Amino acid sequence: MSCSLFVLFSKVATAYFLITLVLAGVCDLRYRSVPAHLERACFFFAVAGAFEKTLPLFILKLSGSAFCFLLFFIIYTVTRGKGLGGADVRIFAGSCAVLGFFPTFEALLIGSCLGSFCLITHHRIPNAPRTTIPLITFFALGCFVSKSLSSSILHTFFTMYVHSSVSTLN
């Protein structure tokens, strides 16, 4: 009985994470910044959504989130806040806790491709220079695209590569 409560809690927290991610995406699109209380709520619900039945799995998800935070924080400090904002770093780290390490990068890849397509086709993004995209907005779109697909895009790509390299060896 208690395991089903943990799973239910995780599902509800994940749903709230996705809702706050959409709200953060709308704020990033409209105002070019994410309010601090919204990014904290997004991070809190992501960590709460990572809570699973077993403690080692929860610790593994949190360690992946810490690694993701460290990786994007290094990018943030090297670019001095021009490439990524602080809200981007915290939301990506939180999403890594709830979605997983590779699905987060898959959503980031999909979102970056959608944002780049938007820049290339010269669609006007409100309150944005012509060389930047609201990354949280396109990351949220990437999350929904990657979650709506039945199989992972990166997993499919890597298995095709492995199968093609195995077939050429025979």
Distance between the termini: 51 Å
Q: How much helix is in the residues?
A: over 70%
The domain tally reads 1
Average pLDDT over all residues:
77
Describe this structure in words.
Residues 164-170 have low confidence and may be disordered. The longest helix has 30 residues, at 2-31. α2 (36-49) runs parallel beside α4, α3 (55-78) runs antiparallel to α4 (86-99) and α5 (101-120) packs across α6 (135-148). It is built from 7 helices and no strands. With 170 residues, the protein is mainly α. The protein has one domain.
Output the keywords.
single chain, 170 residues, mainly alpha, 7 helices, 78% helix, 0% strand, disordered C terminus
Write the topology of this structure:
Elements: H1 2-31, H2 36-49, H3 55-78, H4 86-99, H5 101-120, H6 135-148, H7 153-169
Helix pairs in contact: 1-2, 1-6, 2-4, 3-4, 4-5, 5-6
Brief description of this entry?
The protein is mainly α and 170 residues long.
